[in-house]
Write a structure and sequence with these properties.
The chain has about 120 residues and is an alpha+beta fold. It is built from 4 helices and 3 strands; from the N terminus they run αβαββαα. The chain has a single domain, classed as 2-Layer Sandwich (Alpha-Beta Plaits).
Length: about 120
């Protein structure tokens, strides 16, 4: 009887251990060169929280960067950068979606370049 009980306990322990694997979580910093204000921070954070696999996001608009924790089996770093571009902001080497950029409030857009008169 003890051998049967021990065998069942070992079987339950082995199957529980096999099914309780932890998900791979990765943290990445993404450069946001076009982020200008607190509203930009709010827009990006709100939009990215909708994505499955995003664990946490913190945008520091003064440093122009975002720190994102995500599950690698649900979303990739490239998908995160593309999502930021779809909001209207540059993310590392990916440029903002032009239509989304046009819809941004004036305070969230890049400062206009001033042309010098000769």
């Amino acid at each position: 009887m003890k051998k049967i009980f021990l065998a069942i306990a070992l079987l339950i322990g082995a199957t529980t251990g096999a099914f309780s694997q932890t998900k791979a979580v990765k943290t990445v910093k993404i450069s946001l060169p076009t982020v200008q204000c607190e509203m930009s921070k709010t827009q990006i954070e709100t939009y990215l929280k909708r994505y499955d696999g995003i664990g946490a996001i913190n945008v520091n608009w003064k440093k122009k960067e975002a720190t994102v924790k995500y599950l690698t089996d649900r979303i990739t770093e490239e998908e995160i950068k593309a999502a930021i571009a779809n909001v209207g902001y540059d993310a590392n080497e990916i440029t903002a979606e032009p239509d989304a950029y046009k819809r941004l409030p004036a305070c969230c857009r890049k400062p206009a370049t001033v042309e010098k008169k000769n």
